[in-house]
Amino acid sequence: MRVIAGDARGRRLEALPGTDITRPTLDQVKEAMFSIVQFDLPGARVLDLYAGSGQLGIEALSRGAARCVFLDENREAVNIVMKNCKTCGVFDRSRVNIGEAARYLSACREQFDLVLLDPPFHGGTLEKILPSVEKVLAPGGIALCESETGLVLPAEVGSLTLKKQYKYGKVLLWKYTKPMQPAGEEDAE
């Protein structure tokens, strides 16, 4: 596993051994994810939920994101994220937290331009967490989700709108966007 592009290009990343705790995103899928959001990355505030090794948030930082908050509920994963951030020279633009995603999002007062979601492929995690993601996503922001094929997500989640779905082998990517202003405000003038 490595950083694909940007300032940290080619740097190797550590991952937790085994696949029962984390499931690293394949390079082909990661390249596709960042092609989708490439013009939205410079200066972006990023949240990497279910961070695992931190590879998605680190890729965002390497490609020009201003800062990234990493969240995982596994202490070993959090330690790996911190080590990988230091190895890639992005630790000063990173904040690494341990905790459960729903609890973190309910207490979060920050706004993010990009939320990267790569949860475990079981248990209906995306369906449950997307309404909470909407609350921390800045106007005009993007939530980019990774799931297994066969999952069906709604076209709208609160103010989030599904813009496009992409398929890469056994993986689906879902791009949700939040409008620049709440519905109805454009007519308020």
UniProtKB/TrEMBL annotation:
Q: Which SUPFAM superfamilies match?
A: S-adenosyl-L-methionine-dependent methyltransferases
Q: Give any Pfam family that matches.
A: Cons_hypoth95
Annotated InterPro entries:
DNA_methylase_N6_adenine_CS, RNA_MeTrfase_RsmD, SAM-dependent_MTases_sf
Q: Does the keyword Heme apply?
A: no
**Annotated keywords:** Methyltransferase, Transferase
Which GO MF terms are attached to this record? methyltransferase activity; nucleic acid binding
Example GO BP: rRNA methylation
Against CDD domains, the record matches this protein to: AdoMet_MTases (cd02440)
Q: Which NCBIfam families match?
A: 16S rRNA (guanine(966)-N(2))-methyltransferase RsmD
Protein's UniProt name:
16S rRNA (Guanine(966)-N(2))-methyltransferase RsmD
- The species is Faecalibacterium prausnitzii
